[in-house]
């Protein structure tokens, strides 16, 4: 089993800036896209709950850059569980340029989400991590992957 969930995509011209490389904000969008694909593939019950009162709120997000990506590059976004604390889940992301040689790390990110419930008035309150999400994430934990 892979120690990470992988989402692949091709960089579009819309992802790039006037210089020709990927604009930094797109890496954050890709974290969200990878997380959404993970939920659709691994925990679809959570997506259904998001249509109700469950909210996954981004509490913290970061990214470090080591290289560049350009239009038509294929990128592998690899997400792994970094930790769980109370109602919060922290995920690590690696952005790899794919090509003829070995995959090359071009950026590394981290995101923490908080599991919340919305009351009828719209206020948010912390809630436990849903079981289907916890089980899906456990597949990509460094502890269970070792």
From TrEMBL:
Top-level EC class as recorded in UniProt: hydrolase
Gene3D superfamilies membership: Hotdog Thioesterase
Superkingdom field: Bacteria
Listed InterPro entries: HotDog_dom_sf
GO molecular function: hydrolase activity
Cited Pfam families: 4HBT_2
Name under which the protein is recorded: Acyl-CoA thioesterase
Organism in which the protein naturally occurs: Nonomuraea indica
EC number: 3.1.2.-
Organism placement in taxonomy: Bacteria, Bacillati, Actinomycetota, Actinomycetes, Streptosporangiales
Swiss-Prot/TrEMBL keywords: Hydrolase
Record flagged with keyword DNA-binding: no
CDD domains reported for this sequence: 4HBT
């Amino acid at each position: 089993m892979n120690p990470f969930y992988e989402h692949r995509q091709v960089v579009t011209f819309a992802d790039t800036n006037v210089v020709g490389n990927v604009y930094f904000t797109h890496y954050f969008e890709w974290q969200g896209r990878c997380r959404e694909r993970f939920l659709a593939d691994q925990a679809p019950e959570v997506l259904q709950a998001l249509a109700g009162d469950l909210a996954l709120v981004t509490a913290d997000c970061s990214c470090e850059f080591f290289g560049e990506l350009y239009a038509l590059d294929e990128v592998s976004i690899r997400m792994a569980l970094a930790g769980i604390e109370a109602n919060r889940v922290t995920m690590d992301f690696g952005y790899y340029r794919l090509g003829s040689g070995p995959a090359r790390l071009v950026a590394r990110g981290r995101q923490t989400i908080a599991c919340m419930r919305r009351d009828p008035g719209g206020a948010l309150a912390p809630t436990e991590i849903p079981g289907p999400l916890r089980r899906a994430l456990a597949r990509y934990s460094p502890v269970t992957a070792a």
